[in-house]
What does this fold into?
Amino acid sequence: MPHPRDVLLGAQAQTGFLPVCDHYSGVEARMRKSLQLQAEMTEEFGTCVFDVTLDCEDGAPVGGEADHAALVASLLAQASSKARVAVRVHPVDHPAFEPDISAIAGCRLSHIMVPKVESVDDVERVVAALAAVSQATLPIHVLLESAAAIHRAFDIAAHPRVQSLSFGLMDFVSSHGGAIPAEGMSSEGQFTHPLVVRAKLEIASGCHAHGKVPSHCVVTEFSDTAAMHAAARKAAREFGYTRMWSIHPSQIRPILEAFAPSEGEIESAAKIIAAAAHADWAPISFEAQLHDRASYRYFWQVLERAHRTGRALPSEAQAYFSAGLH
It folds into this structure.
């Protein structure tokens, strides 16, 4: 049975296979808890529904960067072979950047997150540093946190080693010297202030133009589940983001729910893909509408997103995600 990923050229281009949630933690107890929670939810959903990113930048106390990096490396060594774990290192111009890279040399990582990237030159510095420790194929995720970085979002997204761009909301707002009010960092204000909205759209557009994954910023009101879900849904449905940061375990499930397709969307997508496969991927009429490979790609991506968010799949779609075909 031909797999849709093989038949539908470009079917993965703008979504990849990254989980929709990227969970950050930097304190030892929380890092250990995050890894445990990932394992538990992988068992629950049958797939890894969120990445864990261990934080060397904000997690390390000033002066204790080396010890913290060593702790992160030890946790990576203890992680399950099924775990998806990344590390956020210090910025390329920070004294701890190269020591961070050296500390994680040889560790099994899903990717590396680099904050405060300003240009393609910064990405090249990361590429060189990883090559020096035999991590020449490790995917690079970058965090854009200034107006200048946003201006270069398309160029940065075009770099072949960059897998994902994230938006650093709080640093972006503070970099404007008070020109953006504090409300621009709130769960509602970040979707209404024109400069913040523009920055988010530049990142999303740059990523989709080059087949990369746009990852939405944090919501700091972590105890407000309704605000969290509303922000995640807006990011997914209106701003074109396919992934989002979590900074508290209580944010993970709302992100999964907001980024998941509805039951109706999943059911329709499964029926259309099944009918397309039966027609050997030729154009079909389905419920009085014409569908061809352009729409097949969309509906296949709905099923991919459903799988990555742990949603139940109709029987006709389950085989595509079995161990033999995944």
